[in-house]
Design a protein that fits this description.
By secondary structure, the chain is an alpha+beta fold. It is built from 13 helices and 21 strands. Helix 4 packs across helix 13. It is elongated. Helices cover about 35% and strands about 25% of the residues. The structure holds flavin-adenine dinucleotide (FAD). The site of flavin-adenine dinucleotide (FAD) has 39 residues, from helix 1, strand 2, helix 2 and helix 13. Flavin-adenine dinucleotide binds next to helix 1, strand 2, helix 2 and helix 13.
C-alpha cells in the first residue's frame, strides 16, 4: 500500500505516476478538505499557468530563488517538455503566451483540474477527501498513518505533498515531517506586493509602467527591472513580485518594513534624465511643466511626480529653476518609497521555507532522514517566481516521487 498525503498538483501527479508505474500496488490519496486541487482551480487568474516555455534546465533553474540548484537534475528527467507531452497525451493542449507562460488552450483552469481528476480515476487512485492526517509513525514494515477521525492506515511508503504554509493548520505537513525527523526552515511568504502609503501614489491606482527599475535600499543585488503596477495599497506587478521572491528572507527579517528606490525611466540614469529635463527648458520653454512631459511616462504619473517635486501647475519650462528641476529628476529617477508591510496577491503566492533540500535525495525525492518517506511540491523549501514555475516544480518532484515510491519496498 502506498499513501499520498495532499490532493494538490504534486500529490496528484505522484499518485497517478505511482499507479501507472506499479498497477498492482494500491495508492490512497488523502486530502483533508472536501475539494481537491483547490489552488489549481483558482490559479493564473482562473486560467492556470501550467508551466513555462523554457526548455533548457540551466536557464529554467535561474527562475527559482530557492531550489534551483537541486532541480537541475530533475528537470532533465521531467521538465516543461515532458509536462506538455503529459497533458497532450491526456487530451489537453497547452498554448504559449508571448512572455513564455503556458496555459491550457481553453484558458480555463477547470481543464487542468478535470484532466488530473480523470487521469487519477483512470489509473485507479483511491481518493479520500475530508481525510486529515494527524500523525505518521514509522514502524518496522513501513508506516502507520493516523487520521483525525481516529482511523488508521498502514503503508509501505508515504508521500508528503501537503503544500506550503497556507495549507497548514492542524496536522500541517511541516509538523508531520518534523515528527519523522526532518528539520523545518521557518516559512515566510514569497510573491507578495508592497504596501505603501505615499501621497505620490495616492491617486495613481491602475497606472501601469511597462518598465521600471525597482531596488531595495540597503540590500545588495535586490533589484529588478520590469512591469510595475500602482494599486490601491501600493506597488505590484511582475517586477515587484520577483523582488519579493528574491528578497523573501531579507524582507521578512526586516518585518516587511524597508525602503525602495524606483527609477520610472530605467533606460536613463539620473544624469541623463536631468539632461533631458534641462534640454526641455530651452526647447519648450513656453509650455507648462505639468502638461508637457518629455519622458515616456503615463500622464497621471508625470503630473504626480511634478506635484511631489513642489512645482506649481502653471510653472513653465523656461521658469523651472535648477533646484526644482533636480528635485523632479530625483522623483523620476530615484523615487524613494517607504514600504510598510506586504500583501499577498490574489494571482499567486507561495511559501519560502519548509523541508530543507539537503534532507532529500533529488533523484527519487526520497527522504534522507526517514526511509520510505517521499516529499514533493511546496512542502519543500522550493519556490519560483511567477510564470508557471511553481507548478512545474510540483509536476517534476511529484513525477519523480511517484516513480520512485512505486518501486519502493520496506525491507
Ligand atoms: C491564488 C494562487 C494562484 C496561483 N497560480 C499559480 C499559477 O498560475 N502557476 C503556478 O505555477 N503556480 C501558481 N500558484 C502556486 C501553486 O498553486 C502552488 O505552488 C502549488 O499549488 C503547490 O502545490 P502542492 O501540491 O505542493 O500544494 P497544494 O496545492 O497547497 O496542495 C496541498 C494539499 O494538501 C492538503 N493537505 C495539507 N495538509 C494535509 C493533511 N494533514 N492531511 C491531508 N491533506 C492535507 C491541502 O488541503 C491541499 O489540498 C498559485 C498560488 C495561489 C495561492
Amino acid at each position: 500500500m502506498l499513501i499520498v498525503i495532499g490532493g494538490g498538483p504534486a500529490g496528484y501527479f505522484a499518485a497517478i505516476r505511482a499507479r501507472e508505474e506499479a498497477p498492482e500496488r494500491p495508492v490512497i490519496l488523502l486530502e483533508k478538505s472536501a475539494h481537491v486541487l483547490r489552488k489549481v482551480a483558482v490559479s493564473g487568474g482562473g486560467r492556470c499557468n501550467v508551466t513555462h516555455a523554457c526548455f533548457d534546465p540551466r536557464e529554467l533553474v535561474t527562475r527559482y530563488p530557492r531550489g534551483g540548484r537541486e532541480l537541475r537534475g530533475p528537470f532533465h528527467n521531467f521538465g516543461p517538455e515532458q509536462t506538455i507531452a503529459w497533458f497532450a497525451d491526456r487530451g489537453v493542449t497547452l498554448k504559449t503566451e508571448p512572455d513564455g507562460r503556458m496555459f491550457p488552450e481553453s484558458d480555463r483552469s477547470r481543464t487542468i483540474v478535470n484532466c488530473l481528476r480523470q487521469a487519477a480515476e483512470k489509473a485507479g487512485v483511491d481518493l479520500r477527501t475530508g481525510a486529515t492526517v494527524s500523525l505518521i509513525t514509522q514502524t518496522d514494515g513501513g508506516f502507520v498513518v493516523d487520521l483525525t477521525d481516529s482511523t488508521t492506515l498502514q503503508a509501505e511508503a508515504v508521500l508528503l505533498a501537503t503544500g506550503g504554509q497556507t495549507s497548514g493548520g492542524s496536522g500541517s505537513g511541516y509538523d508531520l515531517a518534523a515528527a519523522l525527523g526532518h528539520t523545518i526552515i521557518p516559512a515566510v511568504p514569497s510573491l507578495f506586493t508592497f504596501r505603501i502609503s505615499d501621497p505620490v501614489l495616492r491617486d495613481l491606482a491602475g497606472v501601469a509602467m511597462p518598465r521600471a527599475h525597482i531596488k531595495i535600499v540597503g540590500a545588495k543585488k535586490l533589484e529588478e527591472t520590469g512591469p510595475v503596477l500602482v494599486t490601491h495599497w501600493g506597488l505590484s506587478g511582475p517586477a515587484v513580485l520577483r523582488l519579493s521572491a528574491w528578497g523573501a528572507r531579507h524582507l521578512a527579517a526586516n518585518d516587511f518594513t524597508f525602503e525602495v528606490l524606483v527609477n520610472w525611466c530605467p533606460e536613463m540614469n539620473p544624469q541623463e534624465i536631468d539632461d533631458c529635463l534641462q534640454a526641455e527648458t530651452r526647447s519648450h520653454g513656453k509650455q507648462q511643466v505639468s502638461s508637457h512631459c518629455p519622458l515616456d511616462l503615463p500622464k497621471r504619473l508625470w503630473q504626480a511626480l511634478v506635484q511631489a517635486a513642489g512645482i506649481a501647475d502653471d510653472t513653465r519650462w523656461a521658469d523651472l529653476g535648477k533646484k526644482a528641476r533636480q528635485k523632479l529628476t530625483s522623483r523620476v529617477g530615484q523615487c524613494v518609497f517607504q514600504v510598510n508591510g506586504q500583501a499577498t496577491n490574489k494571482e499567486e503566492f507561495v511559501t519560502c521555507g519548509g523541508v530543507p533540500l539537503k534532507e532529500v535525495d533529488f533523484k527519487t525525492m526520497g527522504s534522507r532522514v526517514c526511509a520510505g518517506l517521499f516529499l514533493a511540491g511546496e512542502v519543500l523549501d522550493i519556490d519560483g517566481i511567477t510564470g508557471g514555475y511553481n507548478f512545474q516544480s510540483c509536476w517534476t518532484t511529484g513525477w519523480l516521487a511517484g516513480s520512485a515510491m512505486a518501486h519502493y519496498r520496506a525491507d
